Amino acid sequence: MTVGLTHIIVVSTVLFFIGMYGLFTRRNMITMLMSIELMLNSVNINFVAFNKYLYPDKMDGIFFSIFIIAIAAAEAAVAIAIIINLYRTHKSIDVDDVTDLKQ
Amino acid sequence: MPENFFILFKQELWVIAIIFLLLLIKLKSKQLTVNTLLNGINILLLLNFINGFFFNEEGRLFGKMFVTNHLYVFEKNILNLSVLLISLQSTKWLENHKHIIEFYVLLLSSLLGMFLMISSANILMLYVGLELSTIPLAAAANFDLKRKTSGEGAMKLIISSAFSSAILLLGISFLYGCTGTLDFSVINNLLQQQPLHIAAFLLFFVGLLFKVSAVPFHLWTADVYEGSPVAITSFLSVASKSAAIFVILNVLNKMAQPLFITWHTVLIWVALITIIIGNLFAIRQQNLKRLLAFSSIAQVGFILLAVSTNSSAGNASIIYFILIYVLSNLAVFGVITLVSAVLQKETITDYQSFYTNNKFLSWCLCIGFFSLAGVPPTAGFFGKLFLLMSAAQGITYTILAIAALNMVISMYYYLRVVKTIFAKNENSCIEKISIPASNKIALIICVMGVLLTGILSGAYNYIISLQ
Questions:
Q1: What are the tens digits of pLDDT across the range B2-22?
Q2: Residues A65-75: pLDDT tens digits?
Q3: Are B93 and B34 in contact (CB under 8 A)?
Q4: Nearest-CA residue of chain A relative to B143?
Q5: What is the Cβ-side half-sphere exposure of residue A37, based on CA atoms within 13 angstroms?
Q6: Which of A47, A63, A101 sits opposite B153 (nearest CB)?
Q7: Which residue of A has its CA nearest to B287?
Q8: B176–A23: do the CB atoms touch at under 8 Å?
Q9: C-beta pairs of B255-258 under 8 Å, 24+ apart in sequence
Q10: Is the N or the C terminus of chain B less surrounded, counting Cβ atoms within 10 Å?
Q11: What percent of chain B has pLDDT over 90?
Q12: Chain A positions in Cβ-Cβ contact with residue B171 (cut-off 8 Å)
């Protein structure tokens, strides 16, 4: 059996929702950040798969996934800097401990 | 490279030049006093603002990824004006801060991102601009490093913006799968009323609605606004929000015309819920920054109601309303920034009989709130009037009546603050606050803008002529 576009889309969709589940259930900020990276990576798989199977003569999808990787790295850098600072002020990186602002 | 590259790209180039200049000054900043530095930066920002008025041309750059025309230049001028005013207002707060240059570098990087996303004609450019405009803001929201709430606000901003951009990207990837291109005009020709196209577009659109904090996606707004330093709060509520609205206008007009029926329905419901929830939550807030957060959510609801009509008159009235919204919101934030920098007080009860010792500041706050509420002599009234009149062409009168009733509710919480300011109370009374020259200039510009834009109708006609 050859691997078709459908198989890859199923994998990437499952990956996206695993990431979303992790973001909503995990309370550790680093794990939440990892979940978001999972969601971004599933989008990368989507782009590359669409490019390979549907539009092999174009490059837009591949370029887009390279941009996503670069921007995700920048986002992670800023997020980790913020988390380090939160650890300094709160002595914890658990979201449930960081509730000074009222709802 | 076309020969008019430097003309077409000049506003972005100016911002880039200022960023690099500031980074170079940072290396040698030991020799400069704080006041010289702040005045120098304000002059640079003023030049940056003036630069937007001369030698404007229309054209495309970077393989048709970047488009500029007179309307985009005008939108960028609004953003430049708001950055200049915020910078003038926050001098008092920055004087005691160690990292002045970093603050401006983050703010201007975010401004550059907004310029790129306003001018984008390609989804890749839009995405890069969107991220460039939000990531530096998260770092800037954490600017009071020692304060606990600042870190919490920044964390909520970065997590929710990363989540929203993941949803946006999922939508973009399916749009690419459906059409095989990232160019706005080509996508516009290829989109159809099919389930996959609609789902992909809606995912993309939800990502954008996150940025304007329309209601199902507004949960981060109030906490981030309360946690951040006041200067960043005003930037978030003024510049970042208006840039996102400009982008939504651009995307809907240039890219999603075949799906008009879909987004028309979605926008009407989102706008109605946004107006109602924003107003109802604003009533019970005690902190002024939280109050303004929910009030800005409600104002976005009114804007989205006009966006749903998809007419050129509607677009002109939206840009006119945003100009007024920027001025009146900055009049309010100018006073709050100053009071918060001097006294660290931010709740409504702290402002009891504020008028006794601070006549000028009270009038600025009062005119700003009147304009936000839409009371006739101020420009806010005409902004809301044009907005609802253009919305009336596309929606039923029932929805319009609900929106108009909500304006009455919004009067309640705006005027409650005004009443607190003017009510006499001998016991608790804020002492007289000395106003630095830069804050005074910024407040006078805002108040004059609010009063004059309402009386002189030139601005509205000018915006219509740009389209």
A1: 778 888 888 999 999 999 999
A2: 999 999 999 99
A3: no
A4: A82
A5: 16
A6: A101
A7: A102
A8: no
A9: B255/B184, B255/B185, B255/B187, B255/B188, B255/B191, B256/B188, B256/B191, B256/B201, B256/B205, B257/B188, B258/B188, B258/B191, B258/B192, B258/B193
A10: N
A11: 45
A12: none
Start-end of H helices in chain A:
5-25, 29-53, 60-90
CB contact B186 to A (< 8 Å): no
CB B323 within 8 A of CB B460: no
Q: Could you tell me which chain B residue has the CA closest to the CA of A42?
A: B170
Establish, for the pair of chains A and B, how many residue pairs have beta carbons separated by less than 8 Å.
114
Fill in the amino acid letter for B434.
S
Give the C-alpha distances (Å, rounded to integers) separating B63 from B9, B126, B192, B409. 14, 14, 26, 49
Closest CB from A67, A74, A98 relative to B155: A98
| Tokens found for residue B383 | 């902004």
Cα dihedral sign for B3, A58, B117, B385?
positive
Return the closest-CA partner of residue B176 out of A86, A87, A50, A44: A50
Helical H segments across B52-183, by residue range: 70-89, 91-95, 100-118, 123-141, 148-179
Q: In the predicted model, is pLDDT for residue A29 greater than 70?
A: yes
Helix axes B288-307, B379-392, angle to 10 degrees: 40
| CB proximity B166 to A under 8 Å | yes
Tokens matching residue B397: 């009168």
Amino acid symbol at A88: R
> ∠ CA(B291), CA(B293), CA(B299), 5° rounding?
100
Residue B357 banded pLDDT, cuts 50, 70, 90: confident
pTM: predicted TM-score of the whole model, two decimal places = 0.93
Say how many C-beta atoms besides its own lie within 10 A of residue A87's C-beta.
13
- A71 contacts on B by Cβ (under 8 Å): 127-128, 131, 135
Ordered by start, the domain boundaries in chain B are 5-466
Secondary structure of residue B3 in the 3-state scheme: coil
Beta strands in B8-83 (DSSP E): 59-61, 66-68
CA neighbor of B230 nearest in space, from B389, B62, B343 = B343
More confident residue, B1 or B149: B149
Helix (H, G, I), strand (E, B) or coil at B423: coil
> Percent of chain B scored above 70 by pLDDT?
99
The answer to whether the Cβ–Cβ distance between B155 and A63 falls below 8 Å is no
Residue B149: how many other CB atoms lie within 10 Å = 16
Judge whether A64 and B182 are in contact, CB under 8 Å.
yes
Which has the higher per-residue pLDDT, B128 or B31? B128
Chain A closest CA to B89's CA: distance in Å? 25
Q: Which B residues, 214 through 233, put their C-beta within 8 Å of a C-beta on chain A?
A: 223, 226-227
Q: How far apart are CA B49 and CA B82, in angstroms?
A: 10
